[in-house]
Design goal:
Molybdenum Cofactor Biosythetic Enzyme, Chain A, Molybdopterin biosynthesis moea protein, domain 2, about 400 residues, seven-stranded mixed sheet, binds adenosine monophosphate, alpha/beta, Molybdopterin biosynthesis moeA protein, domain 3, magnesium, 4 domains, metal-binding, transferase
Length: about 400
């Protein structure tokens, strides 16, 4: 293959937001499948989930104690506690079927339905048993009654389509009454590392070589993003080898590559897509991660990430993950404990350490310092040309 002369009739230096939107637009719609709820963790709801029942399903007690009429227990003189006759018991799963009359109460336990004639609870800690009666050290309170449907009512549209199913949401889907849930199909993403110097961990390493951290890091991020990963391994810096590797990604929804997209003579990924595929953009106004490239190879979308380990993982985190999941990047606002410099024409994602509710500069910000991502735990977003002074509020993305 001859060295291609790149033609540059494609956008260059796009913004992070543009890059994200352009990638999302190239991805095929994920389709829907139904999975058992205990397989649904980490998936994305494909349709809204209504409540099939109300929760609580009856008006019930939040405490162990007695249920009675509040009016029977207020206004008792100090030192002369209310005295109520115990006429029955309501347990979770075995309600009291009778009616509690004036001057009476029923023992009740957490989650048990409130008997007819009662509207308040006095907790067991405030009761003194006295034969068939109980003495109340304080008035019974309606605050400890959970109203029927207080959490949700049958028919309520409780969970929206597009919701990421984390552990609390799996619990909520179960409480709504769903044994199976409609979720988006997992996307199938092919993953390829490039570079003559890149070596599989565990193999001997010569001077000038580097272990393939990108493929492992990116595979982990893809799995965190709910994708099935098709491992294409590693290709050397040769157009023919890259060509052959890309052909093996057939059937995937997306190909993610690392390395070979910057300005070097041996950056063949870039040349291959310019020459024989399509390029949607090259270079994003961000650091780390600037040289990223989006394109296509026949029908297959391809995102070419830079080889530098920090760059590839940061581009994945702030561009590829949100495009794949449809979930926005979660940023929080924290006080900067140190200044963070701005770049005139790029959004910076500096590694930051969160400590005592503030975020400070990790220090070594080179895109080859992979430790920084592991040690720092957060990315501080510094918009183009807007330096951050100590004491300013900054937007921070957790890794
Ligand atoms: P490149 O983008 O191909 O010019 O590579 C930039 C830097 O990233 C070089 O120092 C490479 O050795 C390094 N690099 C490339 N691929 C990987 C990889 N898979 N794992 C770790 N480092 C890599
Ligand atoms: Mg390379």
């Amino acid at each position: 293959m001859t060295a291609p002369t790149p033609t540059r009739d494609f956008p260059m230096h796009v913004s992070v937001e543009e890059a994200r939107a352009m990638l999302a637009a190239l991805l095929p719609a994920p389709g829907t499948e139904t999975v058992a709820l205990d397989r649904a963790l980490g998936r994305t709801l494909a349709a809204p989930l209504p409540a099939l029942v109300s929760h609580p399903s009856a008006t019930e007690s939040a405490l162990d104690g007695i249920a009675c009429s509040e009016a029977d227990t207020v206004g008792a003189a100090p030192g002369a506690p209310a005295r109520l006759r115990v006429v029955g018991e309501s347990r979770a799963g075995a309600p009291f079927t009778g009616t509690v009359g004036p001057g009476e109460c029923a023992r009740i336990y957490t989650g048990a339905p409130m008997p007819a004639g009662t509207d308040a609870i006095c907790p067991v800690e405030e009761l003194v048993d006295d034969g068939p009666d109980v003495l109340l050290r304080r008035a019974a309170s309606p605050a400890d009654v959970r109203p029927e449907g207080g959490d949700f009512r049958a028919g309520d549209p409780v969970m929206a389509a597009g919701l990421h199913l984390n552990a609390p949401r799996v619990a909520l889907a179960a409480a709504l009454g769903h044994r199976d849930v409609p979720v988006r199909r997992r996307r199938r993403v092919a993953l390829l590392s490039t570079g003559d110097e890149v070596v599989e961990p565990g193999e001997p390493l010569s001077a000038g070589q580097v272990y393939d951290s990108n493929r492992y890091g990116l595979a982990a991020m893809l799995r965190e993003s709910g994708c099935d990963v098709l491992m294409l391994g590693h290709a050397p810096d040769s157009p023919d080898a890259l060509h052959a590797a890309i052909e093996r990604a057939g059937g995937a929804d997306l190909l993610v590559t690392s390395g070979g997209v910057s300005m070097g003579k041996y950056d063949f990924m870039r040349d291959l897509l310019i020459e024989h595929g399509r390029v949607a953009f090259w270079k994003v106004r961000m650091r780390p991660g600037g040289p990223a490239l989006l394109g296509g190879w026949q029908g297959l979308p391809v995102i070419g990430l830079p080889g530098n380990p920090v760059s590839s993982l940061v581009v994945f985190h702030v561009i590829v993950r949100p495009a794949l999941t449809g979930q926005p990047v979660q940023a929080l606002t924290l006080r900067a404990a140190t200044p963070f410099r701005a770049l005139p024409d790029k959004t910076a994602f500096w590694r930051g350490v969160i400590d005592g509710g503030q975020v400070r500069d990790y220090g070594k910000q080179g895109s080859g310092i992979l430790r920084s991502l592991s040690d720092a735990g957060a990315l501080v977003i510094v918009p183009e040309g807007q330096p951050v002074a100590a004491g300013d509020d900054v937007q921070v993305v957790l890794l």
